[in-house]
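Hey, sorry to bother you again with one of my protein questions. A protein chain has come my way and I'm curious about its shape. I'm sending you its amino acid sequence along with the backbone structure tokens. I owe you a coffee for this, so here goes:
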Amino acid sequence: MRIDTHMHLYASADEGLRDTTAYPIVEYGRLDGVRFSSRAGTVEDGLAALAEAGMSYAAVLRSYELPGLPFPPGGERHWPVPPAFPEHAARLRAYNGWLCSLGARHPELLPFVTVNPAVMSGRESAAHVDELVCDHGARGMKLHTIAIRTYPDDPGLRPVFEVAADAGIPIVVHSGPDIRGSGWALPAALAAILDDVPHAPLVLAHLGGASWRDVAAVAERHPALRFDLSEIVNWAGAPNGATADEISALVHRIGTHRVLCGSDFPWYDPADTVAAVEALPGLSARQRDDILGLNAARLLRLA
């Protein structure tokens, strides 16, 4: 069984192309020959990409980002209470509802819902996620703290982590540096969530991205933490990225049982990610199978 734990899908081709264009990949430095997907990221595109890669399931995830990506007022680290943009709550709920409707129509697409502390209070967000899990088939969560302009210890997120932990659903969090150097998504900042909610099933996306050198220490401190290989394997050998040998060594140091395969579609095609994982040196056939799907199947309780 092969599972893509990091796929983004869009309601229209225009929306998908707008997102991939607006979010260029710069943190790794320049690398010639990176294979980007030619697909726009529609549901049909995603299903075709999964079939091409021989994948049985995909976690479909995105974050809910405010227009213009505003910062918390007054230069604060966190969003205030009450929320600064409550008028977006209906749209956020509708977006999560759309995700869950995908899962209802296509059982191979697993909805990973999202929250934003600028839009809903911690209590509102926790109740919303609980309802989505219990009544609408949500299978996990996604957070992109760079895009929502806050740190992982935002008080508006803590109740959500607790709900996710109690429900046993994984929380995929973007990890890596940001161009402002704010540290919103550095591995150590994200892993600190586990100091407060130690049983939260947290997955650090991109194996830390261009902050991959910080991952080993974080993984050692938090043995329940998991990681996905989305994007970082596509940029192996980039100036700020890890080489294939370094990725493999880091995966072994973390423990292959803690590592998942994600594509970050539609930036990259799942088939290319699978090929990159299969090409990592020093992995046994069983370890590759675990990374390509069996670890995720256990985490998501899939047959």
